[in-house]
Amino acid sequence: MLSSEQIQRYRQDGFLALPDFKSTAEIAGLRARAEKMVDDFDPASSKTIFTTHEQVRAVDRYFLDSATCSSCFFEEEAFDAQGQLKQAKALSINKIGHAMHDLDPVFGAFSRGPALAALAAELGLVEPQIWQSMYIFKQPGIGGEVGWHQDATFFDSTPISVTTFWFALEDATLMNGCLWVEVGGQRSPMRERFVRRGDVVTMEKLDLTPWPDSRSAVPLEVKAGTLVVFHGLLPHYSAPNRSAHSRHAYTLHVTDGSTAYAPTNWIQRGADFPVRGFV
Ligand code: FE2
Asked: For a tag on the chain, would you pick the N or C end, based on fewer CB atoms within 10 A?
């Protein structure tokens, strides 16, 4: 239950950190499940690397199919020049995505429930629709940077409604690549749109407003169990993890079904796999 002061702060700043939202036991359960998924993953099935650097992504079938699967993606720096993994598989995966919340019972339980449903309602989501889940490892030493972006770029709707639920599964610090946000930046325009036409995806430049820099960005160092919720237009970033400690996080991207979800968003759902809310 948010206080009116918290709701006001969310509207003003574009984000809110809620410590102790998830228990140690819930986190342990999700981590164990993710570990098992990585264990079961055959690296030969894909060497897809996730990066937000390129203007036009070399997106392959594996990435597109992951919209409705639980797929593992490698860190950019996971492989050496000979194409061999530099460290153990379990320490080479960047993330698992993008539909575990609807495919796996442990992820499903973590991603839904009365507390999240109540929070979504308090944040103004009339009809929450969870389009995407990501388990992000931010591996020690090689965890890659995620450049400045707005999540609305990937989940466009009219009007913009996407809200990100970012769960810290480990302490996120400056050392291991915590989130950085621009306070109040949700009032800035959407700079880019990730558009899918058939099997081709492109990044369209919409607005030349510069990304924040060290003067306007603030780091969000949070404890494990904290839920950070933020507005889809809030610019955010995370630095590479050069520390010896991982920085696991889990995210959900949620739009409001009362807004019009863009047909060009890369994740679409058919009647056979309908998008659902927190209940
Ligand atoms: Fe993001």
From this structure: N
